[in-house]
């Protein structure tokens, strides 16, 4: 669901994750039709990186508790 939001509403994707300044910068970028594609790519990559960071944090926590 968040991936679709990141594609169609890139700035909203950042806003929902609490990144206000990034959401504003993304909104400025997506105002132009040409800037929409880079904004959508940026939002999707950022979302995937955020998911990977959370997954890695869980793995590190699991390894440290052993």
Automatic annotation (TrEMBL):
This is YqaE/Pmp3 family membrane protein. Belongs to the UPF0057 (PMP3) family. It is found in: Membrane. The chain crosses the membrane at residues 20-45. Keywords: Membrane, Transmembrane, Transmembrane helix. Pfam families: Pmp3.
């Amino acid at each position: 669901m968040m991936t679709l939001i990141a594609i169609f509403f890139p700035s909203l994707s950042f806003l929902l994750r609490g990144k206000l300044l990034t959401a504003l910068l993304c909104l400025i970028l997506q105002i132009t039709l040409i800037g929409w594609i880079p904004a959508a790519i940026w939002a999707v990559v950022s979302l995937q990186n955020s998911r990977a960071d959370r997954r890695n944090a869980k793995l590190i926590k699991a390894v440290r508790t052993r």
